[in-house]
Amino acid sequence: MSEQPGVHGISGTILDAPELGTLRVRANSLVVVGSDGAIADVVEPHDAAYATTRDDLERRSRMVEVAGYLLPGLVDLHVHAPQWPQLGKALDVPLEDWLNRYTFPLEARYVDVGFSAGVYRSLVAALLANGTTTAVYFGTVHRPATQVLVDECLDQGQRAFVGKVAMDHPEACPDYYRDQSAAQALEETARFVEYVRRHDDNERSLVQPAITPRFLPSCTDELLAGLGELAASTSALVQTHCSESDWAHQYGLTRFGRTDTASYAEFGLLRRGTVLAHSNFISDPDMDLIVDAGAAVAHCPRSNVFFANAVFPVVRALAAGVHVGLGTDIAGGPSPSLFDAAADAVAVSRLLEDGVHAGLAAEQRGVAGSRVSFADAFWMATTGGGQALGLPIGLIEPGYQLDAVAVSPDVPGTNLDIWPDDDSADDVLQKIIHNVSRADITGVWVDGRMVVG
Ligand code: GUN
Ligand code: FE
């Protein structure tokens, strides 16, 4: 990775969401970025310092003009990196069959480090190009291949949490794809945490380790307890799947006699920053546990359509004070774009609110008060994700690191057609969420460095 640039400026119309449900617009403004990648100042045209700041940066050739909009970088809270070759296919069976038929055989191939290098290079480049400046990744059980993913994030300059997947239960995991024992899984996880933290190219902790029990069925009690202890002793973030589908939720209730959330709490895995993917079936007491721990939910609306048997009650969770961000859940979700996840979050919330079975009376069909707005979805994709992880990202203001995405509306052949006289800022946001594609994303910055563009 190249040197951090010195002080520089980026100009454009800034769209971000400091509060749930509100879009902040700062037209033709100037973001001043320090050599540490932090945002030093945001100067608007009406500010006294605007002209001098701009002239000074231009004179020193330290200005990048964005032809369009500057948004905070997107935070994808849930990605299965090894499933990248499976993106867009194999969604014809329920979760448990999908794991055994398609996903475990694919993930087992990452015993081959050469295979992992090719896939992970392509994945990280694609996610950055789609505007994902921070990704929370599951790797595979293999420590060496998962270390390659860490190297790739550092090499391409993506902010990330990465976990070696821990799965040792002989009943839920095939012999060809699992940790051979709880002790071995713990040893490999501890070595992985050390690898990330001591990495020569990671002085700024751009990549952090995550402790990653796959989900309750795949882990023995011994492994879950050991990972809880490791989380406490290393202070590493935890990520896992929680109450995803009827089957997964029921499995936890049957084995432990309590909900997944309560089990994770019991094993010391529900901590500040723990990312619980899906969590579709969580109860009100589960939400209280999550809030008390300072943990978060990765809402994965598209994947949930295929596997979850339900829509995540995002309004209820947000009202309870749960940290909620968005996840693509590649490749349970078939799109790599967190803008798509934002569009889907809005769409499925409407399905939950209205219901879907036309044979029922309208007032019996749905769950009143379930819809989220586009501004809410944008907040979850940026600010909410940053808050979930406890990182100073997701907003464009002093005190935050400069992770940002430039969206330009004039790219040839675009579907993003903006009519400045007709489209309000809120309209523009909706159009971006629905119609942006890779080509419209003309610049991406992580930690102050331009990584795409
Ligand atoms: N539960 C356990 N493993 C997985 C996975 O890879 N994807 C999803 N969506 N759910 C899971
Ligand atoms: Fe997942």
Report on this model:
By secondary structure, the protein is α/β, with parallel strands linked by helices. It folds into 2 domains: 8-72 and 394-452, Urease, subunit C, domain 1; 74-389, TIM Barrel. 39% of the residues lie in helices and 21% in strands. It has 15 helices and 16 strands. The chain has helices at residues 50-59, 95-108, 113-129, 143-156, 182-197, 221-234, 246-256, 260-266, 284-293, 301-307, 314-320, 338-354, 362-365, 374-389, 425-435, and strands at residues 8-16, 24-33, 39-43, 63-72, 74-80, 132-138, 159-163, 165-166, 207-213, 237-242, 275-278, 296-299, 323-326, 404-407, 441-446, 449-452. Strands 5, 6, 7, 8, 9, 10, 11, 12 and 13 form a 9-stranded parallel β-sheet that branches. Strands 3-2-1-4-14-15-16 form a 7-stranded mixed β-sheet, with helices on both faces. The longest helix has 17 residues, at 113-129. The model has no long low-confidence stretch (mean pLDDT 97). Bound molecules: guanine and fe (iii) ion. Fe (iii) ion is lined by residues 78, 80, 241, 277, 329, 332.
- Looking at the structure, the CATH topology of the largest domain is TIM Barrel
Kindly state the number of beta strands.
16
Shape: globular
The first-to-last residue Cα distance is 16 Å
Name of the CATH class of the largest domain: Alpha Beta
CATH homology group of the largest domain: Metal-dependent hydrolases
Q: Helix segment count? A: 15
Total domain modules: 2
CATH architecture descriptor name of the largest domain:
Alpha-Beta Barrel
Low-confidence stretches: none
Strand content: 15-25%
| Global mean pLDDT | 97
The bound ligands are:
guanine, fe (iii) ion
Structural class: alpha/beta
Helical amount among residues, as a percent range?
25-40%
What radius of gyration results from the CA coordinates? 22 Å
By oligomeric state, this entry counts as single chain
Main β-sheet: number of strands, strand sense, barrel status?
9 strands, parallel
